[in-house]
What does this fold into?
Amino acid sequence: MSEVLVVGSVGYDTISTPVGQREHILGGSANYFSLAASHYSKVNVVGVVGDDYEEDHKKILTDRKVDLSGLQQIPGKTFCWEGKYENDMNEAITLDTQLNVFENFDPKIPEAYKKSSYLFLANIDPILQMQVLDQVESPKLVGVDTMNFWISSKLDELKKVLERVDVLLINEGEARELTGMWNGVAAAQKLAEMGPKGVVIKRGEYGFLMYAENQYFILPAFPVKDVVDPTGAGDTFAGGFFGYLSKVNDGWNINHLKQACVHGCLMASFTVESFGVDALVGLDWAEIEKRHALYKSVITGH
Amino acid sequence: MSEVLVVGSVGYDTISTPVGQREHILGGSANYFSLAASHYSKVNVVGVVGDDYEEDHKKILTDRKVDLSGLQQIPGKTFCWEGKYENDMNEAITLDTQLNVFENFDPKIPEAYKKSSYLFLANIDPILQMQVLDQVESPKLVGVDTMNFWISSKLDELKKVLERVDVLLINEGEARELTGMWNGVAAAQKLAEMGPKGVVIKRGEYGFLMYAENQYFILPAFPVKDVVDPTGAGDTFAGGFFGYLSKVNDGWNINHLKQACVHGCLMASFTVESFGVDALVGLDWAEIEKRHALYKSVITGH
It folds into this structure.
């Protein structure tokens, strides 16, 4: 089995949704990604936390065989995010972001991780994403995510990263911002022209649109009637996507990429059913298979 | 072959989109519906126009074998709508609506239409929809559409109509308004509780969500890179949907309903590629089959 390396944020979230609220729960793109990908593959994390980061929270990941030897723990406070969702569960409203130790994050890839076949650069400063790319030796497949903050503040650096990755996974709103195009079908092509061989636009409750090798592959999200907390849905989509690719371990293969999108959808659908990472932690393979079968029936009609 | 009867608006539109603009072109729900459905089935129209309605515009429909003997022409001006689209092509901004002769529309179903097997009540006053229902003898399948105006002004009447129809086809925004639920998955169930055995929520560029017999069937729209004018997409979805059902002529059958949604998507995808009804007029069956094959590959990945 091959391994996935993720570099991203590890922290605490305070979240309010129409269903309820939670304070100071486990969050961060690398945590969501890892817990999702861990259902498919071995996962290694590179990130940074402060001295307030609890051992119990590390244990949630190590219990799922996620390797945290690349998680630096340094003096200071851990990254915190506070947000809320109103009716439109597709859109988070950020109330507060405290970068804390994440502000001076210097991603050091442990020797053992440098030969990782699958690499996901979660939503961090494109300058750091580039530093990671420079440290990892010939991965089979590299994916990247980004956000509006970097699109507006470090566009040139981001463009350089895009030239070096295989797959861009991006929210619809950010795809629009980066291309200036509202239409997702057109935006995906434009994004592919910037470098990535594959582009996956994440559409929240509407699923995803993938564009690669002049083909579109588009599907809706798995229908979830009671969305509790959409936080991390995009990162768990990426986790299911890369976890699956690492599991089949065939590098760039468009058919595998399509299946990877399906597994991304499945992971996202579990995530939104509970607050934080709860659903991903309790999940077992039989539930994933059951939902996969149900998803197939929703999109094929039989 | 069985026949579809549609009762709805027939009129003129003035439309502005980011791509361009057109003045006083053929519009109205019944026209869009009929031209789409005509590719599958015989279609009969009941509606009203003023004495300014041009013979050439009738000919566009009769050339496609649409029967207009139920189209009343009375003194006065024809219904006119003016709207624009900005970036979000899913949402029309109404600039002006002139009901004109449509204001006192009294739908009379010609004797020859009363035994229509498939009936679609396009977006008109629910009181008129009820009058039509009272005139048609035991149709095999009845569908209805509505809009925010009737939801806010004639909710009780609308609810009575919903109790008498088989399928509700409705925009996402209006599904939210009618149920008070943002989540489409939950809203569809709630709408089904109001009466219709089947609910189809039209999601614009994100396709549709169908709920019937405790099953969901959900697919994205066919990917259109250059959307020219989304006007009538919803009505042509309904046209493809009912045209297909009339063609297979098997009444309520959930498997046919699912295929009908796919044909609704295909018709909508052609519609948005040109201004007004242009694309529907020029279309031939080979193009529909070609797009159907392409759509399958987009959603199945092979």
Notes: Chain A has one domain: 3-300. The mean pLDDT of chain A is 97. The two ends of chain A are 33 Å apart (CA to CA).
